[in-house]
Write a structure and sequence with these properties.
225 residues; alpha/beta; 37% helix; globular; ATP-binding; dethiobiotin synthase activity; metal-binding; magnesium ion binding
Length: 225
C-alpha cells in the first residue's frame, strides 16, 4: 500500500524543501517516490530562484510535480487574489495526490510556509489536505530560539483535527550549535511527545546530488511512523 507523507514547517525558511529532499532519498530506498508541490509562489517573470520542486529534483533526481504556480512571493491565496486568478481548492489537489499514490510507493507532499497557510481562495490549508488524505505528517522545525513555541503550536493544531505527527525534522542544524540549539534538541520531543526523525546540517541544500544522496541517510535518527 502506498504511503502519503505531508511535509509541513513551523514557518517559512525552516528548511522544509531540503528536508523533503532528504525524506525522498530515504523513501527511495524502499520503492518509487514522487514529490508534489501543490502550490508554488514567487515564480513569476523575473524570478531568479528555482521553485521548490526543482530544488528537490536537483538534489535527489526523484520525480517531482508542481500543480499550481503563482507569480508573487506571497501566501498562495493572497498571491491569487492579487492577480485575480482562480486556483484549485485543496480537494482537487488531494484527488491528484491519490492518483499519484496509485503509481508510486511513496508520495511526499510539500506544503507552502506553515501548516495553516491558505493554499486556495476558499480557506483550505495543508492541514485540510492531510486530513482529507489520511496522510502521515512530518513537521520541519528550526533549531534555535522560538522553535519550542512554534513547534508546540503546530503540533497542537494538528491534534485538534485528530492528526498525530509522525515526527519532527530539524531543518538546518548549525555547524557550531549554541546552548539553545543543543537543549532544544532534547526539549522538542520532551515538550511535544513527537520524536525527532532527522537533523539536517545547515548548508545541505548546496551539496551536489551525488553527495546529498550519499549523506542523507546519516541525518536520520529513527524510523518514521
Amino acid at each position: 500500500m502506498s504511503r502519503i507523507v505531508v511535509v509541513t514547517g513551523t514557518g517559512t525558511g525552516v528548511g522544509k524543501t531540503v528536508a523533503t529532499a532528504a525524506l525522498a532519498v530515504r523513501a527511495a530506498t524502499e520503492g518509487s517516490v514522487v514529490v508534489v508541490k501543490p502550490v508554488q509562489t514567487g515564480v513569476g517573470p523575473g524570478s531568479t530562484e528555482p521553485g521548490d520542486a526543482e530544488v528537490v529534483h536537483a538534489l535527489t533526481g526523484c520525480a517531482v510535480q508542481e500543480f499550481t504556480a503563482l507569480d508573487d512571493p506571497l501566501a498562495p491565496d493572497t498571491a491569487a487574489r492579487l492577480k485575480g486568478v482562480r486556483i484549485p481548492p485543496v480537494a482537487e489537489h488531494a484527488d491528484r495526490v491519490r492518483v499519484l499514490a496509485g503509481f508510486h510507493d511513496t508520495v511526499l507532499v510539500e506544503g507552502a510556509g506553515g501548516l495553516l497557510v491558505r493554499l486556495d481562495t476558499e480557506g483550505g490549508t495543508l492541514l485540510d489536505v492531510a486530513v482529507e488524505l489520511g496522510a502521515e505528517v512530518v513537521v520541519v522545525v528550526a533549531a534555535g530560539l522560538g522553535t519550542l513555541n512554534h513547534t508546540e503550536l503546530t503540533v497542537a493544531a494538528m491534534r485538534s483535527r485528530g492528526v498525530e505527527p509522525a515526527g519532527l525534522v530539524v531543518g538546518a542544524w548549525p555547524s557550531e550549535p549554541g546552548l539553545a540549539e543543543r537543549l532544544n534538541l532534547e526539549d522538542l520531543p520532551a515538550h511535544t511527545g513527537v520524536p525527532v526523525l532527522a537533523v539536517i546540517p545547515d548548508g545541505a541544500g548546496s551539496l551536489d546530488r551525488e553527495t546529498f544522496r550519499a549523506q542523507a541517510a546519516q541525518w536520520f535518527v529513527t524510523e518514521p511512523g
